[in-house]
Amino acid sequence: MNIPDNLVPVSVKQVEHAQAWEMQGKLAVRTASDKFSTNLYWLHTHHSDELKLTTMLGTTLLNLSSQKGRTVLEADGKTYTDSDAQRLLTRITGWTLPIDTLPLWITGQLSDDDNIIEVDSQNRPKTVSHDSQLPAWKISYKSWQTQSGAELPRLLDVTRDDIRLKIQINQWQALSPETDIKTNRPHPHSNEPVL
Question: Is residue 79 part of a domain?
Fold first, then answer.
């Protein structure tokens, strides 16, 4: 993983304690007219997102970065900009992906517009409905894992009407600005601080 210079890996007890995170995994997209799988890389901070989709051979299909109300999308050798990531992605790719809430769902967290329909035996969300738009998005958590000391989904489906996203999280790393880690105690079993 390519961690930015000012961020360092840390361990957290819960995903919401991560000031930033980076994940690698796989994304399968199915629509009425299209079906494909891609590698997924996502670097998420409170102020910015960098999302990259690559082929199995490492060729970049799409690069979406947003920071402070400015989003840049690079695809097919062209660059597009907009103040809204969701609108830009829909305009260029035709996908109406819930790009603003995906970072929450990927880490097993819920937005204010989410309703838990079903929980699993450990009281984790199993089925969630996102009702801010109609038709509603449905999030199904298939399996969970522990990475960077925190529990988060391993496999989830996000569906609405004729679009289905299958997301597999292979690696997830909590990150913290380097200046913040000096104030935290180190984890007794690692060189990484615990937040």
Answer: yes
- Residue 112 has φ and ψ, to the nearest 5°, of -65, -20
Phi, psi of 17 (to 5 degrees): -80, -15
Instruction: Please report whether residue 48 resides in a domain.
Output: yes
Q: pLDDT tens, position by position, for the chain (195 residues)?
A: 556 668 999 999 999 999 999 999 999 999 888 899 999 999 999 889 999 999 988 899 999 999 988 999 999 899 999 999 989 988 988 877 888 899 999 999 999 999 999 999 999 999 999 987 778 899 999 999 999 999 999 999 999 988 999 999 999 999 998 875 554 544 434 444 444
Report the chain's C-alpha Rg in angstroms: 17
CATH of the domain at 13: 2.50.20.10
pTM of the model: 0.86
Domain that holds residue 162: 7-183
The structure tokens listed for 60 are 């970049």
CA 113-39-91 angle, 5° bins: 55
For the chain, what is the domain count? 1
Question: Taking the CB of residue 113, how many other CB atoms lie within 10 A of it?
Answer: 14
